[in-house]
Amino acid sequence: MSAAHLMTTLVLPWDVVALLSKGDFPRGDHEWICSVTTVVISITVGCGIYTLAFIGLNHLLLITRPTTTYNRLYTPKKMAVWLTVTWLIPFLIILVPPLSGVGELGFSEKFYLCGTKSTDQIGFRIYNSIRVFGLYPIPLVCILVCYTLIWMYLRRHAPRQNSSPIGQDETPTSNSIQMEEKINVSDVRSQSSSTTSDIVSPTQMITKTMPFVVLGFIVLLLPYAISLFISSFEPAVPYTTVILFSSICVNPIIYGIKHRDFNVVFGSILRRRWNNIPEPSSFLKNARRIRCCGGQVASVHVSNDSV
Fold first, then answer.
1. Taking a C-beta distance cutoff of 8 angstroms, is the pair 263, 270 a contact?
2. If 0-12 CB within 10 Å is exposed, 13-18 middle and 19+ buried, where does residue 245 land?
3. How far separated are the first and last CA of the chain, in Å rounded?
4. From CA 116, how far away is CA 119, in angstroms rounded?
5. Which residue, 50, 47, 44, 42, is CA-closest to 127?
6. How far is CA 21 from CA 128, 143, 229, 239, 284, in A?
7. Sign, CA torsion 82/207/161/152
8. pLDDT tens-digit map of 171-224
């Protein structure tokens, strides 16, 4: 999702140019710029939307299913397939209709934005309907269903977690055994990673981010879908487009503040404390090494000059 948001921000300035331009640019011979911008933005935004849906499904399986089932479904190869699907679905939705003669991408004279050209009204409405139904209702339903099931599951099993099994003469059911195994696994993981007072379970992190993810999806993404689908709301498309693009900024904030691991990393980045970043990537390790070696070389040169 971060890669998709990055690609969106890289081509987004061309949409601003199309909105503010008073000349022929980016029309005529330069209209291909608008076409490419529309394709990249639509695919990357769609990828981000489907990624949110798959994250919800991931959370559902992580909490409600046994650990063995989760580990069997989320192997590196299967994760690669999941990521491919998140890119492939919007890729097909955005590119197949224009290549089949339904809709045309370029500069929209109606909205003065890069998007669907409004010269062919029938193709304009059909293509926008395909985009709306392909990119929005399916992920929205997936997100709502997954987080509703998570909420129901946690509410149903919360009393069992608080009750003590010692001293009770009841026969444990398969569900209670499964919950005890999950609790024991989470306890072991928490004890190995942090002190008891600082433990924040994955379930707690998910429940904290859950309302913000659902609310953010509805508030930031649905207005654009509604304005594209309902003709009476078409004048609001430029404004709902701004709201849609703001989701690129809001999603990192939601996960950066509410997620424990991201919170630490984002805080270290903002304060430029690179050494405090846990589990640094290979790129960061190489950057540290280059910076360290560069500083040592500079100090050697200074000492030689002084001698």
1. no
2. middle
3. 54
4. 9
5. 42
6. 24, 39, 27, 18, 40
7. negative
8. 444 444 444 444 444 444 444 444 333 444 666 666 667 777 778 778 888 898
pLDDT digits (tens, 9 = 90+) for 252-288: 777 777 777 777 888 888 888 888 888 788 888 888 7
Token pair for 186: 């989470």
Mean pLDDT of the chain: 78
Among all chains, which residue has been given the structure tokens 């000349």? 23
**C-alpha to C-alpha distance for 291 and 298, rounded to whole angstroms:** 10
Rounded to two decimals, what is the model's pTM?
A: 0.73
Q: Provide the strand spans (E) within 72-199.
A: 105-108, 113-116
Cβ atoms 216, 250 nearer than 8 A: yes
Burial code (b: 16+ CB inside 10 Å, e: under 16) for 111-134 equals bebbbbbbeeeebbbebbebbbeb
| pLDDT tens per residue across span 215-249 | 877 888 889 888 888 888 888 888 998 888 888 87
